Amino acid sequence: MLFAVLVFIGVCTAAQFWRTDLDWIRTPLSTYLYGPGCVYVHVAYDLMSIALLGFAWAGYSATTVELRSGLAAALFAAAGVALPVVAVTELFRRTKFYELARTIHQVSAPATFLWLSFGMLLLSSRWLRDPRMKKGGHSGILLAWLATLVLWFQVLVPGLPNGFWEKLAIVLILLWLGWAARHIMRAARPA
What we know:
Blueprint: H1 2-18, H2 38-62, H3 70-89, H4 98-129, H5 137-156, H6 162-188
Helix pairs in contact: 1-2, 1-6, 2-3, 2-6, 3-4, 4-5, 5-6
């Protein structure tokens, strides 16, 4: 997960600079999945998808048996399955299937964000009660709530620059995922 987070941050940050034809404040990240350099962004999405599937299992396994949440694991796994769907829909621009792809994108992208944010909140709250995982757990719950609030703020307040707020939510989600991966590794070390 840490590797996937670093790759995703590196590639998607670089895309903001190499795509001078796009306004990074107004343009959502998925737009970078089409056009110059899109193959790198696709690879970052696919790597993150695989990492989310692994994280679903790792987060479940790292939690004390009594506090494990199948729902949290399912939310991360669902996000891992939906993320490449989001990426693939952008390949159908300027084709006769674009309207269908756009509809699929409009469902799968928000679903991915919601599944991640609710999974983050659920797992963080479980870890706060877990004797092995609670140390440093307040940072995780704070990041999870911040990401969720940014997502809902973007949805509920019309007219905001979509690119900026979406990318802010993505940064917070990536910070949480990096924190969680590190948290799992730290808890797995022998005392």
